[in-house]
Amino acid sequence: MNKHTTLAVILATAGVLSLGATGAVTATPLAPPSTTAPLSSTAAHPRFDRLTDAIAARAGAADIVARSKWVTKAPIDDPAREATVISAAVAAAAAKGISAARATAVFTDQIEASKIVQRALFAYWQANPAAAPTTAPDLAVPRATIDAQSAIIVTELGTTASLSTSPRCLGALTKATQRTIRTAKLDVLHVTAQLRAEKSICQRR
Hints:
It contains nine helices and two strands, in the order H-E-E-H-H-H-H-H-H-H-H. It is mostly helical. It has a single domain, classed as Chorismate Mutase Domain, subunit A. Strands 1-2 form a two-stranded antiparallel ribbon. Helix 2 runs antiparallel to helix 6 (140-159), helix 3 (62-72) crosses helix 5 and helix 5 (100-127) packs antiparallel against helix 9 (188-197). The longest helix is centred in the middle third of the chain and has 28 residues, at 100-127. The chain is globular and about 50 Å long. 33% of the residues are buried. Mean pLDDT is 84; it is low at 1-35.
């Protein structure tokens, strides 16, 4: 069982996800969090709260991207844009002492998480044409969100570098992810995207 699967199992066990009577995955409400504000993270006392919040916000922008692509009939896969995103992330990460390989892995995960949301929405609209969007939103809005949250992700990768290679990583990431799911009120689709986006956060030495 890999780290990504382990985290999903832990979250399911904790009540974030459950199987309904039909076998479909459903969201199960959790107890209210003790705070809605992300706890501060420093190099001396790293936490994943700001990182998981930024990941959720970035993936949430995929809803608007999907609506635009649906109306304009643009493909979900956009290699040129993806390359630009990764190049920008690598450059920003280098300034904080984060390797190109690390930045590439983490931001490839962000891109794949976004595609999970977009593909699911496309599939829903194909099955339910009446629910499909008819007006394309301006992509500048979600892209501004993506860029802002990407900057936070890079900063937090630097701040949490020691935690990401620690034996405590999975436990700390699970705790932060549970908090983000609660406070952001993520649905099952976005929980799935969240877990995909976090795949490379904990590193093996």
